Amino acid sequence: MNIINYLYNNKKISIDSADLNLIKNFKFNSITSNPTLILKSFLNKTYNKILNLFFIKNNKKKIIDSDKEISLYDKILIFIVGNLIPYINDKISIEIPSRISFNYNLIIIYSKKIIYLCEKYGINKSFILIKIPGTDSGIKAAKKLKEIGIEVNITLIFDINQVKKCFDYGIYLISPFVGRISDNIFCKYDSGVNFVKNIFIYKNNNNYKTKIMAASFRNINQIINLRFCDCLTISPIYFNKLSKYNLKILLNNNFNNLVKFNFYNKHSSKLIIEGLKSFDKDHKRLINLLSTIINNL
């Protein structure tokens, strides 16, 4: 058995992609998406047929992007989700725009808007996680959303303060960014892997229910060493590579080399801002692309 089959059998694999063709061919447990991945899929023409169908049904020019009102972007997003749902076993994470990540009220409004559209188009909200960055406002909003029956994936997790709040609030899922931590914080062993190992132990020792989805990998070793997580979201490039590795490799990877330390540090704020800027840049590119399409209809 190869590693990818092991992950499949244990229902641990999520794909960090919006590539419709890839998702059709493999029954992933879940899907994580962000503006960067959706833009990439648009640019490689994955959604040509779907977009043509969408614009036939929505040929009136409307608001393209909005925080409060239902926009064309929102409808396209949910239309795409509706086309992906049949090919997954569990949940799809739908990300809010980065621009509202520090605005508690707008996060609540936008999240409700997503769920409203999902239910309007026949998508049960049990298949949906609202993907919200781990800012203070985002985590507080996630707590409120949980209280009204909307589950959340808190992304851009970089330090123990974020983690403890999410655990205490009973957030459904958190996504620590392994590779970005490793890129910025150095120790004897892989700092990103050690961070996730530490929070996994902390979770189990305190009987928290929040699921941990390791994300943002830089190499195969990180994926193998974090196979114990509730879920791993991996990019297509690593998905293909993992299929070539034998399961025996796992026997030599455990909790050895664990360095116990907590990240109460200056790096997390910087990493959150960098992540938000990147997502916002690609969101704007995506909106410009949609504007171009609409203006040429």
TrEMBL record:
UniProt cross-references to InterPro entries, sorted A to Z: Aldolase_TIM, TAL/FSA, Transaldolase_AS
Keywords tagged on the record: Schiff base
Pfam families in UniProt: TAL_FSA
Domain of life: Bacteria
Biological process, per Gene Ontology: carbohydrate metabolic process; pentose-phosphate shunt
Entry keyword GTP-binding: no
Protein name: Transaldolase
